[in-house]
Design goal:
alpha+beta
Length: 325
């Protein structure tokens, strides 16, 4: 394994790190969070690194969260950042808007890994780490892993929404980012989320392995099904769907920002998940997104949430450093 610091993305690393450290400091303030009163202070280390099987060869596309004795570590590999940057710069001619979308996608990824750490997910793993793109072992309970991933996704969506609101309230979305309206800024945040999951969709196709959330009869999956490859992550398209919905709902109910679900779903249902393009026909939508359009995914996701509330959160409560809802 070849690992070294990324000098190419040092500026991006420093900018994202400011956001992460701000939230980490908020968590470790007893006034905000009584749960940490009896816990030792820890440090957060965020890095963008070059990871490869060998020097200059087979770059690794991934992100990691690692729980160490005195610090939490979040790592995003340089190749993943490069893919995020490339896909957005190649699709958005306005460099300022592209930069905002890139920041959104990388911030989302980093907050997702932070969610694994602060919610106690890493501590229930034998090696104290979580990995963004990882296949299950045969004896793994896929349902538990998928619930942890959904947990971290919703955590990240809410933190991203709060960052967005801060930029709106102090007018930095205009003065620094150059947006003329909240509406366009909001749309670009949603595009940034889509860009991140667009890459995960590509990686699913690249590995030619099925990633599923449902069993054939609609129940939460338990373990590996015979003769079928799968992941411990829910399908990327499903993750994109519930992440977008979580962000939209959080912004509306907590900050009264009008929802943009119609816009988000139009992008999701188009030929280009990132920037729209040709809208799919009803038949194409039904074939590609039937688990979303018929409402069965919402039902299953709600069942997963209920399972999480009844069982998973009890496992996590002894490790979580923030309130578990």
């Amino acid at each position: 394994m070849y690992i070294e610091s990324s000098f190419r993305y040092k500026q991006i690393q420093d900018i994202i790190n400011i956001t992460l450290q701000d939230y980490y400091s908020f968590v470790y303030n007893p006034t905000n969070n009584p749960l940490i009163e009896n816990l030792s202070k820890r440090d957060l280390l965020f890095k963008i690194e070059r990871h490869g099987v060998a020097n200059g060869k087979y770059p690794i596309i991934n992100a990691f969260s690692i729980y160490k004795a005195t610090k939490d570590v979040i790592i995003i590999t340089e190749k993943l950042v490069e893919m995020i940057e490339s896909i957005i710069f190649n699709s958005e001619p306005d460099n300022n808007r592209a930069a905002c979308m890139i920041d959104t996608a990388i911030s989302y990824c980093a907050f997702h890994e932070m969610g694994h750490l602060l919610l106690g997910h890493c501590q229930i793993q034998k090696d104290m780490r979580m990995c963004a793109i990882e296949n299950t072992n045969e004896n793994t309970d896929i349902a538990i892993y998928q619930m942890l991933e959904a947990d971290a996704d919703t955590f990240a969506a809410k933190r991203l929404g709060e960052k967005m609101v801060t930029l709106i309230f102090d007018d930095r979305y205009k003065s620094i980012l150059g947006y003329k309206s909240i509406d366009i800024f909001y749309e670009d945040i949603l595009k940034g989320i889509n860009a991140f999951f667009y890459i995960l969709m590509y990686l699913e196709l690249l590995e030619a392995k099925e990633s599923y959330m449902l069993t054939s009869n609609g129940e939460i999956p338990k373990g590996r099904r015979h003769n079928e490859a799968t992941h411990d992550h829910p399908p990327a398209i499903a993750r994109c769907y519930y992440t977008g919905k979580t962000l939209i709902e959080h912004l509306y109910y907590q900050f009264q920002i009008p929802p943009k679900e119609k816009y988000f779903m139009e992008i999701l249902y188009s030929s280009d998940y990132l920037f729209g393009g040709i809208e799919l026909t009803s038949m194409q939508k039904e074939k590609k997104f039937n688990h979303i359009t018929d409402g069965s995914f919402d039902e299953t996701f709600n069942a997963m949430r209920q399972e999480w509330l009844l069982n998973t959160c009890k496992i996590l409560s002894q490790y979580s450093r923030i309130p578990v809802f």
